[in-house]
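Lecture 7 notes. Example A: sequence first, then its structure tokens.
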Amino acid sequence: MRVTPSRFRLVIAALIASSGLSVTLLAHADMPSTPWGAPSRAVVSRSDIFVGQPNILPSQAMPLGNGRLGAALWAAGGVTIQLNRADTLPGRLSPGQIVIPGLKNMIADKGFTARLALFDGEWHQAGAGMSARVRVDRDWDRLIIDVSGANPDLEQTVFLKLWAPRAPRVIVQQNKVMLAEHWLDTKLPGASGLPFGSLAAMRVSGRNILPLKIGSRTVALRFRPMLDGKFRLIVAAPAFDGMGDPVEIASKTLDASVDELASQRWWNDFWTKADLIVASSKDGSASYFESLRMIFLYASAAQNGGEIPGSQAGVADMFSAVKDVHFWDPAAFWAWNLRMQVAANLSAGLPELNEPFFALYRNNLDTIRRWTRAKMAGREGICIPETMRFNGVGVEFESDELRPFAIITHSCDGTWSSTSNARTLTTGAEVGLWAWETFLKTGDRAFLEKNYVLMADAARFLLAYQKPGEDGLLHTHPSNAHETQHDVIDPTTDLSAIRMLYPATIQAAHLLGRDTELAQKLTEALERTPVLPLMQTHGRPDALSPAAAQGPGEIIAPSFDFNSPARNSENIGLEPVWPYGLVNQDSALFENARRTYAYRPFRNLATWSNDPIHAARLGLAAELAQSLYALTQLYQAYPNGMADGGGGSGEFYIEQAAVVALALSEALVQDHGEVLRIAPAAPMEWTMSGTVFVRGNARVSVDVLRGVVSEFRIIGAATHAFKIISPWNDRDVVESISGAAAESVRTEKGIIDVLVEPGKSYSFRPRDRPPYSHTIEQDTLGPASKSLGRAAIGLGTPCCAAPSDYDPRTSDR
């Protein structure tokens, strides 16, 4: 949400009051002159993670990161921090763990408190008269830990360690210690042959510093704090592939001067760019989901600053606290588990966080083309493997470390056995469509020129795969309905991809003046592409669905092989609704899609479940709220706001928070199809205010009071014509342009037409409702964890204090 002097109406006062928070309201005159500042801190800080007792377990670790270096922090042994990078491939091996035993007194204090401050990207903890501030430097890949209140006469030892079977080079210098390791990616299926490595180093600002080697995998620094009780520990973990001198590389990062406010500035600027949403409801669920969305945006920024995505299978790999354990192949990327992250970033106006996603496929384009020719009968274009190794080959290898036996599968391989993604054909189309969606929203022609090849080559492949049948239509067979149906004819995913990618590629080619012949072929193929498959309902409908949707009738099938068994728990019949956007509220199949949702076979299953997103797209507000609640109860198991995806590895999953983030945006504003929809799925008991990034490089801000839109605004950075479905039906609407006097708006069949010009704001409200006063809350919320049913964010204070006269020597005898 863009907090400007014209943002945050009294609807926010109602929101805050209904949430029970202690706030101070600032009038318009008290607002800062800049678009952001204190108000943005207040909004973001509502979702800070509070810890009222030591988070001593790895499962209670808190995330930090600068996009390239990630860290997980918990209170074991005083404080333990695991370093993580995305480029220590193929195993995504940790550069190491730091342990600070000298902070044990801090965590032994019953008055211990800690907070992950999202707006500053920092961790703060205090106890026993000591405090610690931890952050990951934005300019250099290093962790900075500032401690105050330490006993200057008490010797401290800080450890940096690895574990078996790691075999690092141990380096001990006058005031530094390091662990360096390097290897070649040559041993596993699909190996790249490239060099990789890990490097971690420490130095401390203190007195009487003594570097130590402790065994073959552990180093330490022994020292005394400064006389004022302070010390600073800097831990560097820069990129390293074994091709340079580790001492020189580490020292460059360790010894660089520290800009005390650089990280805070970056994070503060980040939040000024983000489009935020605040929400409240009597049951507390809406504000809880608000926090999950905020935590997702924070984590997404903390993991997506490198050349490849920080998450590879919906897992928050950059914040791992379980050493080198990975349940899913850490060298491979699942597009299915990245899609909701890409969409959530984009809806929040943060397209730059998706650059590693596009770079992953763009930088491997030649390899993907070779793989496609070799594995898909010489066809041109690209069949992007649904499970793709970082070097562009469609190999997924699951070791036997956490399984009874090792597993290997291929994606985009016509010669492979019928398995999960062997013939999933649509990943390239989805990647291309995300590129097109990004262009439509940003208007960035340079971005389109750079990524158009992903669209065109994906279209070329699908065109080459379509074959004419006896009915004169073009069919795809054998093809997978993702992982749910194998080797069927005309999966709904294929038909949706073709019907959306081909027109987008034609438009992009025309805009860029390229591929005239390809555009003509795609136009002809569209006319011969089958319609979506429909089948009769079976089973019991979701009782929350509208009565009309619960009745018998036709639903969208996963493919034209109606009796093909389900191999995974994906609701393929809803893929045309999202992510493809082929079916919307203006489509002839809209009621069929609603019925498909009501009869969906897999309800709220898996951390990647798209149920809330589908409910939003279908205008099912109550179902959206229920699904968000159900998924959070089932999977959001960790106090850092992340989910447990199963497998027993203890890894954090980020994909569920991404689903929440996207669903809230979709509930507030939708811009797929030909029109903008305002609050099409806002639950009736919710009060919301927020902003969503839409096409035409514009932002739409909406105030919703208990499910009813009070006002909405559009601010554009480019000239763009919008058609908006009025959220007030037949009521008279007035428009105010950049604060001018309100004038009546002419609507045609409930459609508001507005030509947005750069730099102007356009506000709309019903004529019979006066504008609200401008207000915003100051965050005065004390340390407190959040809870929703069995789910919780943060940790509460210790539950059970003994009476003051309790004597354990006699009281229990």
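Example B, a different protein, same format:
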Amino acid sequence: MEKGVKRRDEWIWLAAVLLSGLVLRASYLIELTGEPDFAHPTAIDSDYHDEWAVGLATGVWSDRLQTDPHIKDTAYFRPPGYAYFLAGVYALFGHSYLAARLIQMLFGLGTVVVLWRLGRSWLGPPVGLAAAALAATFWPFIYYEAELHEVSLLVLLAGAILLVLARQVGRPSVLAGLAAGVLIGLFAIVRPNILLFAPVGMAWCWWNLKKATGNGQQASGRRTRGARFDVVAGLVVGAVLPIIPVTVRNFAVAREFVLISSNAGMQLRIGNNIDATGLADGYLPELEELTGLDGWTTYDIPRIHRGVEREAGREMTASQVSHYFTSRTWDYIRNHPLDWLALTGRKFLFFWGPMELDSNKELHYARQESIVLRCDPVGFTPILAGAIVGIVLAWRRRNPVLQDACGEVRRGTHPTDREEVRQGTHPADREEVRRGVHPGQIGSSAQAEACGSPVAPTTVLLVLFVLFYWLSFALFSVTTRYRLPLVPALILLCAVAGVAVWKQAAQSRKGAFFATAGAWALLGLILSIRFVPYEPDLAKWHYFRGAAYERAGELERALPRYLQSLDIDPDNPRTHFSLAGVLARLGHPEEALAEWREAVRLKPDYLDAYVNMGTVLAGLGREGEAIDVLRKGIAKGSRSVAAYGNLASLLASRGELDEARKAATTGLAVHPESALLCVALGQVEARSGNLESAREQLEQAVGIDPQLPQARLNLGLVYKELGRTGDAIEQYTTLLEQSPDDVFARHNLAVALAERGDLPAAVEQFREVIKRRPDLALTHAELAAALIRERTYAEALDELKEARRLNPELARTYLYQARCLIGLGRLAEAKTAFESYLARNPGDAQAARELADLAERMGETEGAAEVQADTGDS
């Protein structure tokens, strides 16, 4: 009865822990729903994961900022595991950021259960519950579960790997080995660094089972030796299974061997160069030389790839590009060994230090602005300090946690296989268990460690996992996300220290209590010291909040954030650049230009600022200034699609068609697969009268990006000029299927339908355009023209009246009015309307003929002859 109560109490405590974890997560999620980046991820990694997942789930791959990262047709640059997870969520629940976060928080609670189970089977219920409580309240877990990052998935997989491997202690199982391997493989396709631990995990399994064979198991030694091979083989096969499809897919699309992803070389170079800080800031020394960019994101990988190819003078695969950066990393290490050692030490201190670092956001202020996270005291440093104490205690026979667990084994009440031990049917020798000398073949590591095993297998496993997972990042950069997957192992070791302190206090062992608690506190104080100077960047925090509001379209709230950032750091060109963008969108172009000029003053090669200035100047009608700014940006090294495209359009609008063609052609030499530049060149050719050349360019644009509206819109216009009205209608119809709200495509479709003679359909489309945009004078006029052909004259006059109200200078309204008045028999008024039209368009021979016919009809033959003579018509 008493045992049943204890078991019931354990379940009550576990339920309380899970409920606490659930309340914390739900509260934080409620807080987050009011934040701008909840539905508009702005951190570049989150943004990239989101777009990748949408592409996988829907088959629609966006062309963000005209820079296609070519995810679908190249070897993976980044590991694909998390993107596929997120795509699965989107496939099930739609493009729901809430669903993704809820599932990740469920993963977080799953981690709580996994660590409870592992701690319980290792050293009993108190350790399991303590580990569960720490996992439920560890605030970085909660924070990242609400981000579109892979952390929650990796943390759960890490805990599951440790749990399944720990089950191998004294209980070799091929299926368990296979399961552990599959978990390692799944982890690898999310973050390949685990592959450094994989052989260590295999060696641990071999050592553990060999140790069991050599300790009192002579009769079953041969069977256990065979089990070692089976378990390790199962682990190898399991690890390979999730990786094979990724490798095969990479080979299928790229015809090269890329195991998982090709980003290792660049990441090595970022972490090891003469200007590296040790943080994952993305700084790549060769970037500007290769691309002309002053900063990069994953969207720029194709551009970086092409830059490496230009330098090498040959085409290169993704693996060869990765090797290019790897070779430069080794050059740096060989040529600057002391600097590299100092940098490595700096990264070590960052990795294990008290700071929570992130390359996308400023975690310190993210926590400060959240009531939930700010009130949660469980962070990395106290857990690390407790884990170090826990490692020491786990190897001490007189540790009260181990002694209590050993007592449970002797009494047959330990949670693992207690019934078999009590009945004497367990494969372990019960007498050895009673004596406390059995090495641990009772079914979990708990018995071995509880009964005084000199080397505790599960403790060794946890330490090895922490050590080798850290080593897998030693050559790379540091960010909080990278260290979180090893926290489950630290939590388990910390739980040992926590339970020991609690038991020592309960047993009034004051000396032991003060020694253990004091060591924990002292370590905590030491580990809290920032041995490497680092201060959270408040200006960066305000900047990212401003970017989040801007992405959400809340420009009025973005503006003060950018201004606050500049108050703290007035010489940051990026903030001036972003502030200028907001000012321009809020309708303050002159102030925006001033901010862009300041950004260029602070950073003369800020190429995107030149592009944006050119765009705004063009919008202000200052085309000459715009052309000068864009040319200056290109001369400084800008290879932006927008720079070339805007320059070509501006030059074409001024009639400088040769220069416009040169700008577009130069841009296409840099970006041969840019649909926008194909459109720009097509427009130039169309203006030049080279309709066939224009058609070729625009068809190429549609082939590159079938979703680009400008491509189909302009191609339809060219088809119409070539007399291919049916093809034009097809382009407009396809465009409207993609973008039903595109009123210009709908207007052009209506014009083409009218030209083909399908007047009812044309009228219907014109009316739909007017319903969406009643301010388009040209649509009212063309609707009137269609109504005239249908002989609906009165309604046509109403439309013409509205068109002239909206745009009194629209000449064709007089032409259509004349035709309408002829239909109504009001010939004198029609003659006046014709004359008003020809006064504005004296070269329209067709209108002159219509006027001449009207004059002849009115009996004014002499007047008709004079009109013909004036227009040169013979």
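Note on Example B: The CA atoms of residues 42 and 63 lie 16 Å apart. The chain has a mean pLDDT of 86.
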